[in-house]
Design goal:
alpha/beta; seven-stranded parallel β-sheet; 324 residues; binds nicotinamide-adenine-dinucleotide; 17% strand; 40% helix; Rossmann fold; 13 strands; two-stranded parallel ribbon
Length: 324
Amino acid sequence: MAVLVTGAAGFIGFHTSLALLDRGERVIGVDDLNDYYDVTLKEARLAALKAKDAFVFERADIAGRAHMEALVGRHPDITGVVHLAAQAGVRHSLVDPYVYLRTNVEGHVVVLEACRRLERLEHLVYASSSSVYGLNTKLPFSTRDRVDAPASLYGATKKSMEAISHAYGHLFEMPLTGLRFFTVYGPWGRPDMAAFIFTRKILAGEPIPVFNHGDMRRDFTYIDDIVAGVLACLDRPPADGAARARVYNIGNHRAEPLLRFISVLEEALGQKAEIELLPMQPGDVKETFADIADTRRDFGFAPTTTIDEGIPRFVAWYREYYRV
Ligand SMILES: NC(=O)c1ccc[n+]([C@@H]2O[C@H](COP(=O)([O-])OP(=O)(O)OC[C@H]3O[C@@H](n4cnc5c(N)ncnc54)[C@H](O)[C@@H]3O)[C@@H](O)[C@H]2O)c1
């Protein structure tokens, strides 16, 4: 028995793989190690995974049909799939739209096509995003709300992944679950995200860009809570006869003002930030806030980490990793 984790060298894929290995699973990690951000960070995560005997790494592009089919053919013992490989980042989708289509939409179909041939597949869990809520204004965001107004191509590709999954669940009776993650942060995080960018700039004495003049709220979710949610979900595939293509929110259920997030970061760093107030960025949304009642009911999901606890842990990792 093995679990396939796509995007294993990525932020969430790394932590998810570690947690699976720690509970005794064999993990087959896939990643193409692309240079969207610092490849040495991806390699450092991968080195930690490769230190574990039960980890197998397969370097592959998930949108490469022949590679993915061959890979799945080599590992017929895969029973679970955690599909996290994606072109992430809202803002970059305005710069290079095509990579989002190729990895997030075409790649998702390739992963589904390869995995539907797995005879022992029990559950495929994939990453969606809070970005599917786009311009919705009703808070908290609920999976019962319609999501017809994406604010970015990234959000639109994640919504497409959900629609495609529904079709595959319906056609091939594949047990699929999409998880809409809300702004994930923590050690080994992504360099294009706020915690990372702000930390680097504050330590360098550079001003930090704060969009919409600071009038933003985010449901910041600590990585350990995300991983607990992913594993709890993976362990509970949809029951026979139940909807085979479900979606759930995985958020912290706390909408934190961005300026409070910054002040907690300043405190953890022991340094004040120079704030550059800027207008709203295209593609961005003002507020995210997850309704997690269904996730709590069905998976016992109960996030516990506040930003007051999580940010100091991120800062401690950052200082140690970058020796600053
Ligand atoms: N981090 C967040 O706040 C957040 C929020 C919502 C959704 N998500 C989703 O969660 C998933 C994981 O995000 P993350 O923050 O760990 O991002 P990440 O960029 O750190 O991880 C993604 C990994 O996928 C790999 N990858 C990208 N394209 C690939 C391809 N074509 N073939 C093989 N590998 C490829 C990358 O090299 C990277 O290591 C993504 O699907 C993302 O859209 C993340």
